[in-house]
């Protein structure tokens, strides 16, 4: 069951607001828990190994996105276990194509493609005590959303008071480049699937129920996900 909305909102905002500074602003790392990366040589021409092919694919999928409103640097994939890289996998399910399935026990998010396959993304998920399961749907979508800390968080973290009227979208904003807002029965659950710029968080439980994907993965999923898309969160 999805937890009480107010407690979920308070919990996730409290957790992601461990305060740090980047150029005078909260850093993404401080807000979420709380650069362009070089890729290794792929081998001599004509002698590419399987690892080299996988690395080349990762370099393609997680490279910089300079044309975004706020240019996005490449993800440092050295900080991500290769098993969490985006890929198409065999996945048997009765859910319709387009459905999003969250598997928090294995730190994966699947987009069902039909014909027994799915696009699989590595994810961060809720920490112990904040995991939930059940059906929801995407009630709305947002790009570079404004983040507003709740009053409860401001009382605990006075540094957040500067954003009481909202933190504009940007690379330091905890909601990231894209956000899918999850609803049940017409009501916002306060849970989201969001874009994380912290590659080391993928494959771990750090949030209070929200689900984070690498920024490039989130943009990929977001572009294929219309409002009202079904979301299934499996038991951990």
Automatic annotation (TrEMBL):
Pfam entry (one): YkuD
Gene Ontology molecular function terms on file: acyltransferase activity
Pathway: Cell wall biogenesis; peptidoglycan biosynthesis
Annotated ranges, domain L,D-TPase catalytic: 98-234
Class of the enzyme per the UniProt entry, highest EC level: transferase
UniProt record similarity statement: Belongs to the YkuD family.
Name under which the protein is recorded: L,D-transpeptidase
Source organism per UniProt: Methylobacterium marchantiae
């Amino acid at each position: 069951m999805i937890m009480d909305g107010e407690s979920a909102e308070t919990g996730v905002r409290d957790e992601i607001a461990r305060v740090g500074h980047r150029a005078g602003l909260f850093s993404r790392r401080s807000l979420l828990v709380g650069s362009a990366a070089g890729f290794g040589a792929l081998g001599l021409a004509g002698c590419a190994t399987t690892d080299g092919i996988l690395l080349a694919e990762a370099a393609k999928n997680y490279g910089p996105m300079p044309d975004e409103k706020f240019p996005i640097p490449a993800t440092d994939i050295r900080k991500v276990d290769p098993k969490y890289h985006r890929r198409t996998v065999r996945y048997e399910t009765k859910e319709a194509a387009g459905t999003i399935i969250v598997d928090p026990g294995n730190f994966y998010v699947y987009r069902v493609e039909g014909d027994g396959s799915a696009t699989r993304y590595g994810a961060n998920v809720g920490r112990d005590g904040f995991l939930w399961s059940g059906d929801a749907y995407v009630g709305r979508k947002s790009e570079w959303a404004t983040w507003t800390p709740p009053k409860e968080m401001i009382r605990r973290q006075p540094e957040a008071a500067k954003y009481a009227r909202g933190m504009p979208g940007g690379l330091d904003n905890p909601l990231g480049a894209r956000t899918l807002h999850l609803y049940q029965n017409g009501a916002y659950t306060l849970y989201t699937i969001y874009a994380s710029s912290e590659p080391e968080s993928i494959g771990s439980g750090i949030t209070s129920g929200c689900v984070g994907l690498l920024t490039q993965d989130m943009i990929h999923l977001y572009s294929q996900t219309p409002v009202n898309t079904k979301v299934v969160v499996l038991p951990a």
